Structure formats: C-alpha cells, structure tokens
DNA sequence: CGCCCAATCTTGACGCTGTCAAGTTTCGTG
DNA sequence: CACGAAACTTGACAGCGTCAAGATTGGGCG
C-alpha cells in the first residue's frame, strides 16, 4: 500500500477524472450512443482498455459519469434556489426551474442518469450523489405541508411532476397540434398545486 | 405491385408481425439490452439480416416494437377506464391506474417507448400509435376544468405527474429510508390535485 | 542505494453487434 | 411459361465490451 493513495498516479495524472470528463464531453457533443469505453479512451489518449481497468467495465464508467451528473444537477438546483425569492413556494418553483434547465442543457446526461437504469451499476458513491440531489429537493419542499397523510407526499408530487414534464418534453411526446404549445412551462402547472405553508 | 398487398408473403407467413412479437417476448424475458436484430431473427428462425430488410435497420425494428407497445398501452388504459366509476374524476384516476399498471407490467417496453428517443426512428405509424394513446388520456381529462389558462394544462399536469411517478418508481429513485414507503401510490397524490368538473 | 512488488497501462485476441453488397429463392403477373 | 420484383440468405466488414497476458512505472523497504 502506498501512503499517498490517489495523489500522483504513475503514467497519467488522475486518469480516472479525465475519463469522466471526456465522457461528459462526448455526451454533450455526440449523445449517449457514442459514449463508449473506446471513445473515452481515445479522447484522453490512452489505450482502449484503460477505462475498463479503472471502472470495471462499461457500466462502471457510465455510473461514474452519471454520478458526476447528479453533482452538477444538485448544483444547478441550488444555484436556482439561491437566486430566488426566499418564500417557500418560490423556492420550490426555483428548484423546479433548475431541474428543467438541467434537463434541457444536458439532455443526454439526463437520460443516462434517469432513463437507463439497466446500463448502470450503482455503487456507494453514485447512490450518495443521487441522494444528495434528492435532498436538495426534499429540504426545499419541507416547509410546505404534506398534501396527504404521508409526510413525503409533497416532495414526491413535486418531483414526479417536474420529472415527468422534463422527460416528456425531452422525448418530444407532447403533440404540437395546439397553436401556441411549443414550450409549455412548469410554472403554468405548478402554481395551482395544493402547496401550502406548514402550519 | 401485387393486388394482395401483405396477404401471403413468399416464404414466411407475415414475418414482419412475427418479428415484432418476438421482440416483445425478448423484451419481457431478457430486457432491452438483449433486444437485437439477430436475436429477433434467431427466435423466429430466419437469417440474421432478415429483420433489417423489413424494418430498414435496428431503429426501425425498435420503433415498430415501441409502436405496438403504444397500442397495448392505450388498451390497458381503456380497460381500466371502462371498469371504473363513470364520474370524471374517477375516470382520470382509472386512467392513471392503467398507466402505472402498464409501466409495472412491461418495464422494458415502457423504457423503450419513453426513455430511449435516440434509438427510435419515428414514422407515421409510430406517431399515430403514440398520439392515439395520448388521446385516451386527453379525452378523459376533457371533462375537468383546466387548472390554468391553457385548455391543455390539465392533461399535461396529469400526464407529467403519472409519467414522472412511473419513471421514478421504475428507476428505483425513491429512497426507501422511510419505513412504510415501499410502494407509494399515485392515488395518494392525485386526489388533492386541483381537478374540478368543468362548469 | 538498489531491488522488488504492486499498481497502471498496453497489446492482442475473442465473440457479438449492426450494416451492407451480392447472390438465391419464391411468387405474382403479363 | 418466362420474366421481374420482392423476400430472404450468405458472407464480409468495422466497431464494440471483455478478458488474459505482458510491459512499464514508481514508491517503500532492506
């Protein structure tokens, strides 16, 4: 065992982080279908099987990239919340705005994070990152009264609503038959929800 | 041109439908990752490139299977609606119940239909099937007053909510930290929504 | 100071995939 | 009956993930 655990690896300077970064770039530039072990390796300039060594295989690499995505995701929601009116309801709306912004800005990453569970191999770090993102939403919903008996019902409702809207918009599933329906906004839907300040 | 368009093809009896059926079976048995042109061909007993000839390639086959999925999806929702109380609100709840049931009964197919847009190549038949499924939900929501100025706001809200809930449950994204939270039900969330009969 | 071992990364191979070009079989029609 | 088109097969190719084996590097210990 070395006493300087991941300080200065042998050949490449922190290849692991570089591979995750290259994966995020490939995702943004070319989409999920091009996110491959060999493409990540080539972009960083290492051999085709170096990524598998660090991440155990493709699912491991995708999981690491998705975990980094949840960090960015949580940061996006926090930034939106920070910039908003501090009233509880406005804070929730701001979180949802951040949610939608992230999905729109990083569609392929969003898909990897939420829509490809079979391709991921969740580990402790991934679960921690995903939970941290959920906590941002949950703590923002906390000041609002639950809409049912379940104390978690408000966060579940808000999360389901915003996640479903983001997913369906991204999938292009909303029919553009109506004239002015090109970009429905969650703010047209969220305000009428039965969200109340806790007594 | 033959005058009997798709009646009795040359070698195999309607290979196209057989390939779609085999795809549905593979999806149910082995998941999306095993749904491949060659696996579908082998299950039906034709050569490895017969599917590509009929569907133009993998995206074409996946689109045809997803389109069939939307037909089953619409049927599931209609059956649930038919069996429910005819009051408008109960009808909407029944639709959502059918929605959740479909997602739970056919998780891989549900993922293919909604969560892998990059792997599909929508054509007229696919769009028609997806729109028909949407129409089931839209017409059920019609008797309810819109929650905002937009007449489509109710269906968008209901659809986003139930789709988000189904997706997140399927992805296992809800933290099971709470004790009794193993199977949250949309009925705990939908009733408090501001759905009202139209005046 | 020098060795040694473990971690890092490379090389080469394997089977599987989708795609394509070319050939073969089959059937409807003129 | 023969021709042509449609349906399907055959064979090949590059790219993919994975694995085994080898080369390279660098830090800790004698």
Description:
Two copies of one chain form a homodimer. In chain A, 59% of the residues lie in helices and 0% in strands. Chain A contains eight helices and no strands. The N terminus of chain A is likely disordered. Chains A and B meet through helix 6, helix 7 and helix 8 of A and helix 6, helix 7 and helix 8 of B. The structure holds a DNA duplex (30 and 30 nucleotides).
In short:
The first copy, chain A, is mainly α. In chain A, 59% of the residues lie in helices and 0% in strands. The longest helix of chain A has 25 residues, at 58-82.
Helices and strands in order:
Two copies of one chain form a homodimer.
Chain A: H1 15-30, H2 37-44, H3 50-55, H4 58-82, H5 88-105, H6 107-114, H7 124-141, H8 153-170
Helix pairs in contact in A: 1-2, 1-4, 4-5, 4-6, 4-7, 5-6, 5-7, 5-8
The first copy, chain A, binds a DNA duplex (30 and 30 nucleotides) through residues 1-4, 8-12, 15, 36-38, 46-50, 52-54, 57-58.
- Span between N and C termini of chain A? 56 Å
Q: Give me the number of helical elements of chain A.
A: 8
Number of strands of chain A: 0
Structural class of chain A: mainly alpha
CA radius of gyration of chain A: 20 Å
Major sheet details of chain A: none
Q: What percent strand of chain A?
A: under 5%
Which two chains touch over the largest interface? A-B, 47 and 47 residues
Order of helices and strands of chain A: HHHHHHHH
Mean pLDDT of chain A: 85
